[in-house]
Amino acid sequence: MSPRPLALAILISGRGSNMAAIARRCAAQEIDATVACVASDRADAPGLATARALGIETAALAPAAYGTRDAFESALGERLDAVRPDLVILAGFMRILGGGFVARYHGRMLNIHPSLLPKFKGLHTHRRALEAGEIAHGCSVHYVTEELDGGPVVLQGQIGVRAGDDEPSLSARVQAIEHILYPRAIGWIASGRLAWRNDRPWLDGHALTTPVVEDFDALETS
Ligand code: GRF
After folding, report:
1. What's this model's pTM, rounded to 2 decimal places?
2. Nearest CA owner, ligand 1 atom 9
3. Which residues have any ligand 1 atom within 6 Å of their CB?
4. Which domains does the chain have, with CATH numbers?
5. What is the pLDDT of residues 54-96, one digit of tens each?
6. Phi and psi for 20 in degrees, rounded to 5?
7. Position in ligand 1 atom list of the atom nearest CA 47
8. Is 39 helix (H, G, I), strand (E, B) or coil?
9. Residue spans of the chain under pLDDT 50
10. Residues with catalytic function
């Protein structure tokens, strides 16, 4: 059993809107978790100020100051471990993490990716979905493994691509559902519904072989 409440360390590089959505649900006690630290590879990440305003401890570590990726990631891991995180949450952390760091948090690190994985791993997912003529798009919450955007997906949110959509409109609708789904997945872990055992995710006592998918189209008003 994990300790309660679950301690979260959240890694960001930018705006931190997912971090804020998670932190607010923790503060409202809708999730039995607490954000113990928000860390960034960029001291100017706007999300750090948001975190501080929410009363959360923050840290900024500049990769350039460490010389090598391994050295940076060791320092980052040490900084995170100072708050004894149960889960490491990647929320717009724009660095590819090496094997050592991934192994350090194996089975307890999650990411949110703005596509319906395995489609559109990597960057510019909204543009690529539009260019590919997709009729559905969305986001995926997954455990982090060494394969970029390739770990087991536990929860996906799906929306329809509309005729007039462009990159900003699609991005905005995907972000809105990210703010619902990422806290939900973390809540599942906090409540014990979702766990990592035998090197795979389990939901409600069953090995999770395909992600839970929520179709948000039914909820759209326009
Ligand atoms: C999100 O769209 C997420 O899917 C991706 O990075 C973005 C982060 O946005 N991994 P924010 O910093 O949480 O606003």
Report:
1. 0.96
2. 92
3. 12, 14-19, 47, 91-92, 112-114, 139, 175, 178
4. 1-105 (3.40.50.170), 113-222 (3.40.50.170)
5. 999 999 999 999 999 999 999 999 999 999 999 999 999 999 9
6. -65, -40
7. 12
8. strand
9. 1, 221-222
10. 113
